From TrEMBL:
Keywords: DNA-binding, Transcription, Transcription regulation. This is AraC-like DNA-binding protein. Residues 219-317 form the HTH araC/xylS-type domain. It comes from Granulicella aggregans. It comes from the Bacteria.
Length: 331
């Protein structure tokens, strides 16, 4: 299995907080950084949920300002963008309009799944929503998700992505029975398709982890790891798969990925292990063997080192996290 397909397969993405923003000029909405954890009624701090946000313009025009990008970006019907957590933006009808609301305030005021704002002028319709990820998905997603991805309507790279955008806009507009469920599933498909379109962009293939994946030699070694994570890989065997000397392979791997080959193998094994543990249907020794360890003791030691918690603590945190799943802030 190629590494990108393996990461898509490992991802567990949940869309929530979908709503339709009906804005009339003048209007301006901002997205603030999510940096602070929440507090339970018991006073215990809950780590902030790891999120991404998306918005799609289904009618009208507006301007998008993104933290770190000097010039505002004009948006028109069919344009879509994806934001990583912590990226500040402003959406508004005109470059001169000051934002009066936050997305959080707009979402809280929504009636059903429709939110209204503005002064009664030219209309704009924006479909908004958020994504949350299970803990096993966080590291793979950070390897693929930049702070900001923009997909222009006239640049949609696949018919499938274009059709998903149209179908999502239709479901959010019609509100037929079951539309909420369908829209949520379409949004989750949209997340994968936007990432896939981003990866297909030639400039992105020359950055970080993707550069290694598309490197003819390192990509072969990464493919071997992802194809069989439980194989007892060594630097020598991975170098052989890549068709390189041991020293050249190790140096090139560290240069492109920022970690040694065996650190990468161990980290990906733990990603798979987290996914298996969250299913809660296997014994610890079975999970250990599925990710390449002959004893649960050796597996547990590696898990604690990489994840920062033992397996029992990790599973317990999973229950606590699922119990607070409804507290995430939507876009």
């Amino acid at each position: 299995m190629d590494p990108i397909s393996d990461i898509f397969r490992t991802m567990h993405v949940t869309a929530f907080g979908l709503h339709r923003l009906e804005a009339t000029a003048p209007w301006g909405v901002k997205q603030e950084n999510e940096t602070e954890g929440k507090t339970k009624s018991s006073g215990k701090k809950i780590p902030p949920t790891d999120l991404a946000h998306f918005a799609m313009l289904s009618r009208g025009n507006c301007w998008l300002s993104v933290e770190g990008i000097a010039e505002p970006i004009p948006l028109t019907g069919g344009d879509c963008f994806l934001l990583a957590k912590g990226t500040s933006i402003v959406l508004r009808d005109s470059r001169r309009t000051r934002p009066r609301w936050t997305f959080r305030e707009i979402g809280a005021s929504a009636n059903g799944n429709v939110a209204l704002c503005g002064g009664g002028g030219a209309p704009t319709t924006i479909v908004c929503g958020s994504f949350s990820f299970d803990r096993a998905s966080l590291r793979p997603i950070t390897q693929l998700l930049p702070n900001f991805i923009l997909i222009k309507a006239d640049q949609a790279r696949t018919l499938a992505l274009h059709n998903t955008l149209q179908a999502l806009a239709s479901e959010m507009a019609e509100q037929a029975p079951g539309s909420g469920v369908v829209a949520t599933r379409l949004a989750e498909v949209l997340f994968i398709q936007v990432l896939r379109s981003h990866i297909a962009s030639e400039p992105e293939r020359n950055k970080g982890w993707l550069r290694a994946v598309f490197d003819p030699q390192l990509g072969t070694a990464l493919g071997a790891i992802h194809d069989s994570v439980k194989t007892p890989w060594t630097v020598e065997s991975l170098a052989e798969a890549a068709g390189m000397s041991r020293s050249a392979f190790a140096a090139r791997f560290k240069e492109l990925l920022g970690q040694t080959p065996l650190e990468y193998v161990t980290e990906w094994r733990m990603q798979k292990a987290m996914q298996l543990l969250e299913q809660r249907d296997k014994k610890l020794i079975d999970v250990a063997r599925l990710v390449g360890y002959e004893s649960d003791a050796a597996f547990s030691k590696a898990f604690k080192r990489v994840v920062g918690a033992n397996t029992g603590e990790y599973i317990k945190r999973g229950f606590e996290r699922s119990g607070s799943a409804g507290t995430s802030e939507a876009f």
